[in-house]
Design a protein that fits this description.
The complex is a heterodimer of chains A (81) and B (209). Helices cover 11% and strands 5% of the residues of chain A. Chain A is built from one helix and two strands, in the order H-E-E. The two termini of chain B are 18 Å apart. Chain B has helices spanning 14-27, 32-37, 113-116, 123-131, 141-152, 154-172, 177-181, 196-205, and strands at 4-6, 9-11, 49-56, 61-66, 77-87, 90-100, 105-111, 188-193. In chain B, the strands form two sheets. In chain B, strands 3-4-5-6-7-8 form a six-stranded antiparallel sheet. In chain B, strands 1-2 form a two-stranded antiparallel ribbon. In chain B, a hairpin with a 2-residue loop joins strand 5 (77-87) and strand 6. Chain B is globular and about 55 Å long. Chain B has 209 residues and is an alpha+beta fold. Chain B has one domain (4-205). The chains are: A little secondary structure (81), B alpha+beta (209). At the A-B interface, helix 1, strand 1 and strand 2 of A face helix 1, helix 2, strand 3, strand 4 and strand 5 of B.
Chain lengths: 81, 209
């Protein structure tokens, strides 16, 4: 249990978890003629939501949950579940 | 540091449990984001990790990690965990936890409602959901880390929720609250920086780092 430790030990413990994270890959290759456009649209679904219940069918691989938010400018909430 | 009594049983303070998690991850050259991405073939911008969201807190919480471009983003940010608490049959977004390029917590962010499309809850109700969490009951180090961090930063999250509500009130200016919460020109409402070394040092030793 991490009780009775000093400030230096805490700093060292944290330092041991500093590891460079992988750079995010682009969702898919685009041709030069394609352009990614993010449109702020009143009709958009929230981009970062949980999308209904996380255990619902919404989580199946063909639901809107799996749609790439960068290319989906009409239906996806960027941070939904 | 004295053990706490929670739900009738002895529970270690969140700072001590968090440090245990950090030491465990450090021993295997890992961190919370790498724990999540460990078996993934690639980390793709916009995808959610895990795809079905991480369940914790006796299934009353969900979280996923992702990365996407955000206007005025902090260049040190790699991505963020979104944290949701159950509300009846739906979910409420508590906050996003931004992580830096080396897998360390960078800041708490509360986004506008439209960003997550989840239910809106008052501060006290969200704090009660945090109170109900028991870090040691989580089955793995990543969940324990998340829950310990939420417990450790409960006060700061309470302050941030208060600032959220004040910001919303200030933005009303004759508009309905729904208009403000769905205003797509407003992405981030409030944020608070995280200095985990200082926080753990203060909690576990009583010193300032």
């Amino acid at each position: 249990m991490g009780s009775f430790v000093g400030a230096a030990a805490i700093a060292v413990a944290i330092d041991h978890t500093r590891h460079r994270l992988p750079a995010p890959a682009q969702p898919h290759e685009q041709s030069q003629s394609e352009t990614t456009v993010v449109i702020v649209d009143e009709e958009n679904e929230p981009p970062c939501g949980l999308d209904d219940s996380p255990c619902s069918m919404d989580d199946n691989p063909c639901s809107l949950d799996e749609t790439d938010e960068l290319d989906n400018t009409e239906d996806e909430s960027p941070c939904s579940l | 540091m004295q053990p706490l009594v929670m739900h009738g049983r002895v529970e270690c303070p969140p700072a001590a449990l968090l440090l245990d998690c950090i030491q465990e991850m450090g021993a295997r050259r890992s961190n919370p984001v790498l724990e999540l991405l460990r078996d993934m073939p690639a980390f793709v911008q916009g995808d959610k990790y895990p795809q079905a969201a991480l369940s914790f807190g006796d299934d009353d919480w969900r979280s996923y990690y992702h990365s996407h471009p955000v206007a005025n983003a902090d260049v040190r940010e790699h991505g963020h965990f979104h944290l949701f608490a159950r509300k009846g049959n739906g979910w409420t977004h508590l906050a996003a936890l931004a992580m830096d390029l080396e897998g360390q917590p960078l800041r708490w962010v509360i986004t506008n409602r439209w960003v997550t499309g989840s239910d809106w809850r008052d501060r006290n109700s969200l704090l009660a959901s945090i109170n109900a969490l028991v870090p040691s009951e989580e089955p793995d180090v990543l969940r324990q880390w998340l829950v310990s961090l939420l417990k450790l930063y409960r006060t700061e999250l309470g302050d941030l929720l208060e600032a959220r509500d004040a910001r919303i009130t200030g933005l009303l200016q004759g508009r309905s609250i729904d208009k403000v919460l769905d205003d797509r020109t407003l992405y981030e409402l409030v944020c608070s920086p995280i200095d985990l070394t200082a926080k753990l040092t203060s909690e576990l030793t009583g010193e300032s780092s």
